[in-house]
Amino acid sequence: MAAALTTDVLIVGGGVAGLWLNARLRQAGFATVLVENASLGGGQTLKSQGIIHGGTKYALHGALTGASEAIAAMPGRWREALAGRGELDLAGVRLLSEAHYLWSPGTLAGNLSSFFASKAVRGRVDAVKGEHLPPALQHPRFKGKVYRLAELVVDVPSLVARLAELAGDSLLAAEHLEPLLDGGQLAGLRADGVEIRAQRVVLSAGAGTAELLASLGVQQPAMQRRPLHMVLAKGAALKPLYAHCLGGGPKPRITVTTHPAAGGQWVWYLGGDIAEADGVARSPEQQIAAARHEVEQLLPWLDTSALAWASLRVDRAEPAQSGLVRPDNAFLHEQGALLVGWPTKLALAPDFADRVLANLAEAGITPGAHAPLPALPRPALGQTPWEQLLP
Ligand code: FAD
Description:
- The chain is of the alpha+beta class and 391 residues long.
- The chain is built from ten helices and 19 strands.
- The chain folds into two domains: 4-45 and 159-222 and 322-389, FAD/NAD(P)-binding domain; 95-152 and 226-317, D-Amino Acid Oxidase, Chain A, domain 2 (2-Layer Sandwich), CATH 3.30.9.
- 24% of the residues lie in helices and 30% in strands.
- The strands form three sheets. Strands 1, 2, 9, 10, 11, 12, 18 and 19 form an eight-stranded mixed sheet that branches. The protein has an eight-stranded mixed sheet with strand order 6-7-5-14-15-16-13-17. A three-stranded antiparallel sheet has the order 3-8-4.
- Helix 1 (16-27) packs parallel to helix 5 (156-166) and helix 1 packs across helix 9.
- The chain is elongated, with a radius of gyration of 22 Å.
């Protein structure tokens, strides 16, 4: 491999943020190199539930804020891209569900009436019954109410594979990064000894960004990690379910998504409140027992005896927020030639790319002339937690 390369934008981190941005930049005519030190999507991206939120669930907290209205555009943008006529051609990416559901198992009328009183929710939510219920809830013993949200659920492995295809020859597997300085200014990075000069360096390395910033001697922006303890179940008894199940509080008691596993079985991936504070404090055995109890309470007709279970600890990486308020839009910070950010949600990857493109336009950065890239060592695609944890 050449000892020195030049490009327009050097991206660090091949999760959804870096890969989506890379594809948008290439489409806009920019030369790019994306460096990944482990596997594509193998950080948070392939551990996500794949829900393309439109912000409706935030209305459970009360009114949607202005910032969370920004997320309302995301399902539409993804839908266009998945149909092959949007900002990226994602036509081959598998859509797991056209809708995500809001499921109220009991008598939570009070909670739901304030939810439906919110102006932002009207027109975005429809009640469903009978054969329109999610397959897992179509049972004579099912009680409760279900509402359809205009939010999609995507198959993240096929998304990562498609974004890697759109990356062409720009992906580089490299473990060791060092800053490349010209007169004290950041001019690029040295990746496993190869000098890569770029007009801009974008750090989109998820939880790895804090360490990268420290290695560059940069203090801002600060990052926070939000620990989660997710649960997985797999077995022939499971049918598709994509839903936030409401409890008494403002957060979904449990959020269920369903994913295809090799061998044709479905995997339920359980997050929501159960995966947060109390769930994080539990041991894996306790957490699996708690999730199993929840599932048995909520779907008493489901035979759980032959299900395989696992739990997964994973941190969400986000910009530091006072009071751990959850951000509702992608975050980007500029410092000279360095751009640093977190999409904060898979759904917000398009917003993250918009912010970088706007920043380049504002700085007057346009595609330059560069020698074609040599063949670079390519990072592998990451694996899902169910491939890793469930037999
Ligand atoms: P990551 O996917 O973490 O990617 C960062 C990449 O950078 C990794 O591949 C990593 O290996 C690489 N890297 C790190 N350090 C270095 C380095 N030094 N050099 C080179 N490369 C490096 N969002 C939604 O919208 N909907 C959901 O349903 C949803 N569910 C979630 C469920 C869970 C359990 C979790 C944890 C998150 C969920 N999210 C969801 C959030 C979403 O997954 C993340 O916001 C998003 O995937 C972040 O993407 P990213 O590219 O910034 O980070």
